[in-house]
Amino acid sequence: MPLDLVRDSAVRILLRVFEHGAYVSVALDRGLRRRQVSERGRRFLTQLVYGTVRNARLCDHVLAGLLRQPLAELPAPIRVILRMGVYQALFLRQVTFPAMVHTSVDLAAKHGHAGTARLVNAVLRRVPERLEDVVLPDGPPAARLSVRYSMPEWLVEMLRAEVDGDLARLETLCALLAEEAPVTLRANRLRITREALCEGLESTGYLAAPRTAVPDEVTVVDGRPPVRSKLFLNGACMLQDPAAMLAARLVEPQPDERVLDLCSAPGGKTTHLSELADGKATIIAVDAHAHKLRLVQENVERLGAPGVAIACADGRIPPFRAQTFDRVLVDAPCSGLGTIRRRPEVKERIRPERLPEFAEKQVELLRSAVQLCKIGGAIIYAVCTFTPQETTGVMQVITDSEPVALEDGPPWMDQWKIGTGQYKTLAERDGLDGFYLMRLRKRS
């Protein structure tokens, strides 16, 4: 029986993710470019890679009860093959149990030897065939949910605070964060209406419809990113979560204003700012990483966003005079924990001791933004996370030490409002990624 090339590609991609710290999206994209597979194969490969990473802690828990030696002592490719096998057994109904075992044994023979192939065969034949048959650890709720939904206990406890300690809501939130995020688009209002985008996508085989209260959002109902469609390639839309769209909406850029996007890559918010000002504002897109600015330029060109200029600079020491801009957006680097549905690798890579480090940099960026903003201008802060250190903690530091005051945004955003000028989204409430946003007005 020939080796399953899609599963073999999945092993190689997962090795880069688990062993070399690659981002799932980047490793998968590279893997898809290197090996030509059918559209069905692309979908299965994507499902295998994301599903295995998303459920890695649960897979390791199952394997720990079946192995005689610690999983960490096995060769890295064999660990990946075992995890991938458990994921298929528990979550993929389209894969038969015998097929999962046989293909995994073939992979173990290729990436190991006859002995590792026998080990994989013996272990995977004893894997539970249903998720309901997995025995979860006894003990506190956080320990059980940590294994079941594959996230560190400290993160489960932080989520518990988000739902005011309600265990039923906590499990619902953990379950939502363990699922695949919907494919959402932002209609490029300079080229197309949201309704016309939905109609155009449907005419090319994509079922799409607005699903949230965010004005420019369109959700692809069947979950296939239309990145090869003419509409996407011609700049009619941008892949973006609805929560991320709220940042530019909170900025409310106006024609003839100078607007600074202080951490602009990959350009989703930069191009949105241009669109909302009808292409008549001057948007300065800054980022500290030159290679990321190439993505900004590509998106500006594809979407046809007028008035955008790009500069490579550290936002904490920007090459601009004080009081230069009418509005400044700080979409700050953060822990990214609000996006774990899209970037499941983040769950295991972020450590709680790093959160103060993120917050310190965010405060520095905001202080820079306050200096660059004109008196009477607006500063908008956005992070795709929910940790107290990076959200209300940063707000408290800035409002206590800088000449700014919190100010409410447009009334239609009140559904996410948690305090004057502050907004928070979370999958448990509205299906959006977890974002925190605030708007500040600079005072004399």
Name its key features.
4 domains; N-utilizing Substance Protein B Homolog, Chain A; alpha/beta; 13 strands; Alpha-Beta Plaits; 444 residues
Dominant shape: globular
> What is the residue-mean pLDDT, rounded to a whole number?
96
Report Rg: 23 Å
Oligomer: single chain
Annotated CATH architecture of the largest domain = 3-Layer(aba) Sandwich
The CA-CA distance between the termini, in Å, is 75 Å
Tell me about the biggest sheet? 9 strands, mixed
Count of individual beta strands: 13
CATH level 3 topology of the largest domain: Rossmann fold
State the share of residues found in helices, binned by percent: 40-55%
- CATH homologous superfamily assignment of the largest domain: Vaccinia Virus protein VP39
What fraction of residues sit in β-strands? 5-15%
How would the blueprint of this fold be written?
Elements lengths: L4 H16 L3 H11 L4 H16 L1 H9 L11 H16 L5 H15 L2 H11 L16 H8 L4 H10 L4 H11 L5 E5 L6 H10 L4 E2 L7 E4 L9 H4 L3 E3 L2 H10 L6 E4 L6 H9 L5 E6 L2 H14 L4 E5 L12 E7 L14 H4 L5 H18 E11 L8 H10 L2 E3 L10 E3 L2 E4 L1 H4 L4 E8 L2
Parallel strand pairs: 5-6, 5-8, 6-7, 8-9
Antiparallel strand pairs: 1-3, 1-4, 2-3, 9-13, 10-13, 11-12, 12-13
Helix pairs in contact: 1-2, 1-3, 1-5, 3-5, 4-5, 5-6, 5-7, 6-7, 8-9, 9-10, 13-14, 17-18
Q: Can you describe what's shown?
A:
- The protein has helices spanning 5-20, 24-34, 39-54, 56-64, 76-91, 97-111, 114-124, 141-148, 153-162, 167-177, 194-203, 230-233, 242-251, 268-276, 290-303, 346-349, 355-372, 392-401, 427-430, and strands at residues 183-187, 208-209, 217-220, 237-239, 258-261, 282-287, 308-312, 325-331, 373-383, 404-406, 417-419, 422-425, 435-442.
- It has 444 residues and is of the alpha/beta class.
- It has 4 domains: 5-132, NusB-like (N-utilizing Substance Protein B Homolog, Chain A, Orthogonal Bundle), CATH 1.10.940.10; 143-176, no CATH class; 183-239, 2-Layer Sandwich (Alpha-Beta Plaits); 242-442, Vaccinia Virus protein VP39 (Rossmann fold), CATH 3.40.50.
- Strands 5, 6, 7, 8, 9, 10, 11, 12 and 13 form a 9-stranded mixed β-sheet that branches. Strands 2-3-1-4 form a 4-stranded antiparallel β-sheet, covered by helices on one side.
- The radius of gyration is 23 Å and the shape is globular.
- The model has no long low-confidence stretch (mean pLDDT 96).
